[in-house]
Amino acid sequence: TAFNDAVSRAKPLNAFLVETPDHALAAADAADAARAAGEELKPLAGVPIGMKDLFCTKGVPTTAASHILEGFTPQYESTVSQNLWNAGAGMLGKLNMDQFAMGSSNETSAFGNVISPWRSNDGSTAPLAPGGSSGGSSSAVAARLCPGATGTDTGGSIRQPAAFTGISGIKPTYGRCSRWGTIAFASSLDQAGPMARDVRDCAIMLEAMSGFDAKDATSLDLPVPQWEQSLNASMAGKRVGIPREYRVDNMPEEIEALWQQGIAWMKDAGAEIVEVSLPHTKYALPAYYIIAPAEASSNLARYDGVRYGLRDLPDGANLQEMYAATRAAGFGDEVKRRILIGTYVLSAGFYDAYFTQASKVRTLIAQDFEKAWESCDVLLTPTAPSAAFALGEKSADPLAMYLNDVFTVPSSLAGLPAMSVPGGLDRKGLPLGLQVIGRALDEQGVLNAALAIE
Ligand code: GLN
């Protein structure tokens, strides 16, 4: 009954692409049996979670919200999802998302946009974007359809949707969560992470999701810390950095006020506030929108109509024509835009001017953070430059959409852990998020600072 109720509330949000009640029920039954037998319960025993459709799930269709993967049912389980099942969780279903995780509003899904459960209180009935690319995850958790969901974050796709829907989400240090079995967008940036109602739930889920995996060459061979057990909201003795360059032009007053509120909370928790400089911040977005499409153009070359999902074979077509027809029919506009940009910036005549240059900028951005850590322990910024916008508001203007990632992309380029937590509501009653960025491997510091805000 509870499941059917959840499904009927879920339908209008379009958050789920596939429903897997049997999977969730099996986990619940296993938890009941363990409890009856007096066994110690696993950390996520019986907890029904949503899986972003970027994670391959054995025997369950996985599309990355793209037509090109329609009909693809993986024969294997991603490491992250397997880790969650090992911790006792079950899967309610596969969650809608921006196609191949490219987007900030969930409007690039081939299966219809997701709608945020939030409405503004200014009388407007326009449905709002749940953020992206993990918009099915944010919408499902915000609507209380599941207590937690997986997300992936390449340039902000966990943090921005969490901010738009009033929930929490953390992107760990690059390499904490295995990328094996997670459909690749930009391999040097992609990281999985949890999205949940609060910081504690994120800590519990992240512990389950993380860990070394020999099947991912960039997986960190380090033990997983006990983040939940070490949660501590006191910031006594901690220095919180406020990066000067994040005070961007035309920053809405309400975002500035949110930031000041966050600073006040940090002081209340005992922190010392220090101003820091991250001088290359303004080059982060352009560098990201070269590096991410470059890697995507390479990763997405595998969708050729031969090995996975869709095949479009016009009468009498040869192999090249089959590739072209399949990719033309299977990829959405945003994916094609990224592939075109990516192949352009990697092409012989432009490689040095674009890709090499962007890679150098990436190093400078990482060095900015290294320098900042000399004078602070964590950084505090807004998560996004605005609250959730209306669906359709930015979909015709890719640049306006890309600008939404201004605060999340730098830490992605540097591979640092970063988290969004709810910071209050704007004048229209819509949630705003505060972002905490930490040193590499210091998820604990990030979670603790986020707890101080929560
Ligand atoms: N919005 C960014 C993009 O479109 C980030 C996406 C992500 O983190 N997956 O690339």
Automatic annotation (TrEMBL):
Residues 3-447 form the Amidase domain. It comes from the Bacteria. Its EC number is 6.3.5.7. GO terms for molecular function: glutaminyl-tRNA synthase (glutamine-hydrolyzing) activity. Pfam families: Amidase (PF01425). It catalyses: L-glutamyl-tRNA(Gln) + L-glutamine + ATP + H2O = L-glutaminyl-tRNA(Gln) + L-glutamate + ADP + phosphate + H(+). Keywords: ATP-binding, Ligase, Nucleotide-binding, Protein biosynthesis. The active site is at K52, S133, S157. Belongs to the amidase family. GatA subfamily. Heterotrimer of A, B and C subunits. Allows the formation of correctly charged Gln-tRNA(Gln) through the transamidation of misacylated Glu-tRNA(Gln) in organisms which lack glutaminyl-tRNA synthetase. The reaction takes place in the presence of glutamine and ATP through an activated gamma-phospho-Glu-tRNA(Gln). This is Glutamyl-tRNA(Gln) amidotransferase subunit A. It comes from Sphingomonas olei.
